[in-house]
Write a structure and sequence with these properties.
With 735 residues, the chain is α+β, with helices and mostly antiparallel strands. The two termini are 51 Å apart. The protein is globular, with a radius of gyration of 30 Å.
Length: 735
């Protein structure tokens, strides 16, 4: 690296120190011969990466050691995984082959490294690369779940050390992390890793909010610690008197979860009360776990009054990812609600280390929700036709959802995601039952297919051999399995109809004396703006395109109107320079040119916001804020369409639309005061104003035109000072 002197001796010393720390982390799982195996992997990685450096200038070997350490210490994986983590970049980045790995470390290690290498492979740039990438990663689940666990460790270390990367790369990696990897860590029960991934993603996608909450948390730290100590003291005392061995401590909530609460409830930081949770971890033998958890619950609720609506019992019915815990919310000594989590040491290890710990204790719980979930993923992946983006969307939706428990008429328990309908239940029982379902009885009462199920419902499915899946079913099913089977069935039906359409079109073209060949079919599909010939055939069969439309096409061909050129030249025309220098305020692309764009209405960017460009298929380049609710999905799924963008010097006479959500106590003249500040004091135009008042509480959504972020922040500060206003936030969409 240029610019500084490299001290090889100091680096070698540091490498040895990090390697020794790794061995200490592996100690709990080490067996005879394991140390030598890890040493051989380390030596090979060290030799292979010896001339490589990270963006920070550090030796590359620091990265595989750190990934191996996360796998050992934070996920609890064993020797095979440590070896694979040390070697995870060797095949991809160096001349070492998979065959050499297999010869030295065996088939199992080679197979896992092959899975890790495939994840990093480059796929067809015209498809959604990241979506395809993610799907291929999940294919390895069918083979060995350790591939995904090591990938999560790799991603976590990359996120922890991302400050030296280019800004656009930081945004892409952070978005992909929050969109896919954090939910995956959640589903595999790695809660600590999931929270850290979310926080680190937010640090790069919304740095201002992240720093603001971090600063506020720091300011209140001493006060919070005092409150926790006062709350814990009487609990500890009674536990000791009762002879219950337990650790009791306060755990701060993550920055991301605090921000989520502020956003969902439209409240300022000061009004988020549950900034921490109290955790009680009991040391007790397996056969007494449930009894002891409820005993501790009884002690806590004798001391502090519980909120009856906030009891969550995942001890009797664990979550699908193996999570077990009792959660209750109680009123603390200073009149503030406090969440208390009660669990045993075994339950805590499963909650912290997820999948790996779950497997360690597997004998006691052989048919767990986690096994079931992995089986579901395998079934989902076995549907070869599903579009990669549909797959990722369906899969992601099922990653974060909480479970509900439903019973069959014979009393068998079925786990479904929260919000599942009677039709989801039918598909969960069997694909054929779902496909022929016409209704259901929930608790012996007849309900439609779209009926949302509640925890503890007993469901009986009614079927008919005449029933087939319908398009509108996709609007209300929530499970990935149901969506996948419905889409697959509809595709089959569409293909059959398209076959009929093909014959009809052939006859119609013959009557118009147009030759039926591939070139003409593609031209006709382009003319009618259909993405494929199958769509064209389908619409012919449905009667949407008839002989009159085809005659119009034939006329156009005769006069040689260049109608069909519109579609193919559309994308290339998007990036041509345009001469709108007097109004352009955004520069786009690697060389920051002035090109045509529109501002995305989902987040209404204004000068000063952190932004990026997204190349759409039909609407040109759209500019989004990096903190836009859709940003993580766009960057994670369509990274190749993301363009750099920055504000040029903003023209004061240009106004940009943005939204404000105002909450307060309803009072005479409050609306007048608000509009006066906006229109008179700040000379800002209001585009729309919607107000609701309910039992003395006032809520208003106001769309205003501002010149830049500083003006907006100043306006919000002044509005907040109006008597009666309790909260004001910028909101994303114009709705």
């Amino acid at each position: 690296m240029e610019g500084f002197e490299i001290d090889i001796e100091a680096e070698n010393k540091e490498i040895r120190k990090r390697y020794r720390a790794l061995l200490r982390a592996c100690k709990p799982t080490l067996q005879r011969g394991d140390k030598q195996e890890i040493r051989r992997a380390f030596d090979l990685a060290l030799e292979s990466h010896k001339d490589m450096r990270r963006k920070s200038g550090e030796p590359y070997i620091y990265h595989p050691i750190a990934v191996a350490q996360i796998a050992a210490e934070e996920i609890g994986l064993g020797t095979t995984s440590i070896v694979c983590a040390l070697l995870h970049d060797v095949v991809e980045d160096t001349s070492i082959t998979l065959q050499e790995i297999e010869a030295q470390f065996g088939k199992k290690v080679a197979r896992i490294i092959d899975g890790l290498t495939k994840i990093s492979g480059i796929f067809d740039p015209n498809s959604s690369m990241q979506a395809e990438n993610f799907r291929k990663m999940l294919l390895t689940l069918a083979d060995d779940v350790r591939v995904i666990l090591i990938k999560l460790a790799d991603r976590l270390h990359n996120m922890r050390t991302m400050e030296f990367m280019a800004r656009h790369k930081q945004l892409k990696i952070a978005s992909e992390t929050s969109y896919l990897y954090a939910p995956l860590a959640h589903r595999l029960g790695l809660y600590a890793i999931k929270s850290e991934l979310e926080d680190l993603s937010m640090k790069y996608t919304d740095p201002d909010t992240y720093k603001f909450i971090a600063r506020k948390l720091n300011e209140k730290k001493a006060e919070r610690e005092k409150f926790v100590a006062d709350f814990i003291e009487p609990v500890k005392k009674i536990l000791e008197e009762e002879g219950i061995k337990a650790q009791v401590f306060g755990r701060p909530k993550s920055i991301f979860s605090i921000w989520n609460k502020m956003r969902k409830k439209s409240i300022p930081f000061e009004e988020v009360y549950d900034l921490f949770a109290i955790r009680i971890i009991i040391d007790t033998p397996a056969e007494r776990e449930k009894t002891e958890c409820w005993r501790v619950y009884s002690i806590v609720t004798d001391l502090y009054r519980p909120n009856p609506d906030r009891l969550r019992d995942w001890v009797s019915s664990p979550k699908g990812n193996g999570y077990e815990s009792l959660h209750t919310t109680v009123m603390g000594p200073r009149g503030q609600w406090v969440e208390v989590q009660i669990r045993t040491k075994r339950m805590n290890e499963i909650a912290e280390k997820g999948f790996a710990a779950h497997w360690k204790y597997k004998e006691s719980n052989s048919d767990s929700g986690l096994d079931q979930w992995i089986q579901n993923v395998r079934n989902l992946l076995s549907s070869p036709e599903q579009n990669a983006m549909d797959f990722v969307d369906d899969f992601k939706m099922n990653l974060f959802s909480d479970e509900i428990f439903i019973f069959t008429p014979k009393g068998t328990l079925v786990q479904l995601p929260n919000g599942a309908t009677a039709l989801d239940f039918a598909f969960e029982i069997h694909s054929d039952i779902g496909a022929t379902c016409i209704g259901a009885k929930v608790n012996h009462k007849l309900v439609p297919l779209s009926h949302p199920l509640q925890n503890g419902d007993q469901v009986e499915i009614i079927t008919s051999s005449k029933q087939t899946p319908k398009e509108d079913w996709l609007n209300f099913v929530v499970t990935a399995k149901a969506k996948s089977k419905i889409r697959s069935s509809l595709k089959e039906e569409k293909r059959r109809i398209a076959e009929d359409g093909k014959e009809i079109l052939e006859r119609k073209l013959k009557s118009l004396k147009i030759t039926y060949n591939t070139d003409n079919i593609n031209k006709i599909a382009n003319y009618f703006k259909y993405p494929s010939s199958q769509e064209l055939f389908y619409n012919v069969a449905k009667g949407i395109i008839d002989i009159k439309n085809l005659r119009d096409y034939a006329e156009m061909e005769k006069t040689n109107t260049p109608g069909q050129s519109h579609f193919s030249s559309h994308v290339s025309g998007l990036v041509e320079k345009i001469n709108k220098k007097e109004v352009d305020t955004i520069l786009i692309g690697d060389d920051y040119q002035q090109v045509d764009y529109t501002l995305a209405p989902c987040c209404n960017p204004i000068p000063g916001d952190d932004i990026f460009g997204f190349l759409t298929v039909n609407d040109g380049i759209k500019i989004h804020r990096t903190s836009c609710p859709n940003a993580s999905k766009l960057m994670a799924s369509y990274g190749y369409r993301i363009l750099k963008a920055k504000w040029a010097s903003s023209k004061p006479n240009l106004a940009f639309l943005t939204g404000l959500r105002i909450v307060g106590i309803d009072d005479v003249g409050l609306i007048n005061k608000i509009t006066n500040v906006i229109s008179q004091e700040y000379q800002v135009n209001i585009r729309s104003l919607s107000i609701t008042s309910n039992e003395g509480i006032f809520e208003g959504n106001i769309m205003v035109f501002v010149n830049h972020i500083e003006q907006l922040e100043d306006l919000m500060k002044t509005l907040k000072q109006i008597s009666g206003i309790t909260g004001i936030t910028r909101y994303e969409a114009d709705n």
